[in-house]
Fold:
Amino acid sequence: MRIYYRGPDALLTDEHFTWHGPERAHFSIRDLREVGRVRSVAAGLSSRTLLGVGAILASTVPWLLAAPFAAYSVILIVLATAVTTLAVGRRRKVSLWQVQATYHGSRVTIYASADERVFNQVTRALSRAIGDARSPVPPNRLAPL
Structure:
């Protein structure tokens, strides 16, 4: 068995492609048709940003209970920071790269990644695996004369 790519999110051999994504997906290389790359751009906030803004806002509640007059200036600073974070976070664009293919007659996403470098490694390996699987001569043997 020849391994074309082995990483934390995918395993690609000469016969199978396994994606350890949101749901574990397993595909036979010989059954993949019309394989293509798709890039989608999504604007929005990351979960880390939302958690940070929520933590900042939640931390202002004790100030309201302890010293209401001193809390007003702190709350204004916290709210200004939260609003700025939300405004900047909305402009941030996240690219999601996908490999889509026809598999057993259905169009499916066989791999997706937000990391372009890893995505390119996987797609190069997948291209080699598909080419070797469909070549009439086995990849490591000489053709008979």
